[in-house]
Design goal:
Strands 2-1-3-10-4-11 form a six-stranded mixed beta sheet, sandwiched between helices. The chain has a five-stranded mixed beta sheet with strand order 7-6-8-5-9, with helices on both faces. The protein contains twelve helices and eleven strands. 46% of the residues lie in helices and 19% in strands.
Length: 324
């Protein structure tokens, strides 16, 4: 009898919780939504978040408040999302650094992304490229590889040790059998400045950060790391089509909420974000940034995060990289 009463009470509690979640989803959102960005204002992540937020606010009928939490290799932003209530009113825009790399780059990882974050949807993919100055003798990837093999030990710059662009070049080095020395910078801007100034001969960088210099003819793109060519750089081949079939390395921006956020709320955010990215305004803006508009279900996004974590985890271990 006592066990029966306890079981009955448990069922009542579960039913009450489900009812509360359902009610919350029906009224969600009824106040502003905070979106955490793990980088400083004015960068690529911040710009995308603010553009998306303007349209998302119209879709949800509530203001979107961007909260920049830069520093700590995105750990500060990650911890801010972990500390937030799992109610859908705090979201974050992360890239693979936060959810597929940091857990392998610290001897004592500051958080477990699987236990901490619920994927909502991918927003965009970010193409990377091998770049040189316009006066560099290499005209295509075949020339580039031949020159690197003829003179091994040359340096390439990137925006930070252990981040996606660094690991993309390490992946290509392994695929092509090159001996190149990496030079990590604190962000893409100083790395680009040194490429333009002649301090480094090669740069691996995301295309959006360099597009104005590419269009101005100051920087030549040797090859893209993405699976497909960019619409804004239609004459630039990919690494895969330049003699390395199957090669692909890119990044993405995506939305996350704390683990424990009710499924109906996650579904509401997913639908609103996908509608937002599909608007003509966002499609035009994203294309102008040389990004690729891509959305997904939460399940598809979760599978992508896991795939990236498996890939980057192995590479980080092979390279013995650490941020400690």
């Amino acid at each position: 009898m006592f066990k029966t009463v306890k079981i009955a009470k448990a069922f009542v509690a579960v039913a009450a919780l489900a009812t509360a979640f359902g009610a919350a989803a029906q009224t969600f959102p009824n106040k502003p939504i905070r979106v955490i960005v793990s980088y400083a204002a004015g960068g690529a992540t911040d710009n995308l978040t603010r553009q998306t937020g303007q349209v998302l606010a119209e879709k949800l009928g509530q203001p979107i408040v961007v909260d920049n939490k830069p520093g700590g290799s995105t750990v500060i932003g990650a911890q801010a999302l972990i500390a937030a209530p799992p109610d859908g009113y705090t979201m974050a825009i992360f890239d693979p650094s936060t959810v597929a790399m940091n857990q392998f780059l610290f001897k004592k990882p500051p958080y477990d992304p699987v236990k901490s974050f619920q994927p909502v949807t991918v927003l965009t993919r970010i193409p990377f490229a091998i770049m040189v100055r316009a006066d560099h003798p290499a005209k295509d990837l075949k020339d580039f590889v031949a020159q690197m093999k003829a003179k091994p030990g040359q340096s390439f710059g990137h925006s930070g040790a252990g981040n996606p662009v660094h690991l993309a070049m390490e992946s290509f080095k392994a695929a092509a059998g090159l001996d190149l020395q990496h030079v990590p910078y604190r962000g893409g801007a100083p790395a680009l400045a040194d490429l333009l100034g002649g301090q480094i001969p090669i740069l691996m960088m995301d295309v959006p950060s360099v597009i104005q210099h590419i269009k101005a003819g100051k920087v030549r793109v040797i090859a893209l790391t993405s699976a497909q060519r960019s619409d804004l750089l239609p004459d630039v081949p990919t690494i895969a089509e330049s003699g390395y079939p199957g090669f692909e390395a890119s990044s993405w921006f995506g939305a996350f909420v704390p683990v424990g956020t009710p499924a109906p709320v996650v579904a509401r955010l997913n639908a609103a974000l996908r509608e937002t990215i599909a608007t003509p305004h966002m499609q035009t803006w994203i294309k102008a940034q040389t990004l690729e508009a891509v959305t997904s279900t939460p399940e598809e996004f979760g599978a992508l995060v896991k795939s990236d974590a498996d890939k980057y985890g192995k590479l980080i271990k092979q390279l013995n990289l650490s941020l400690d």
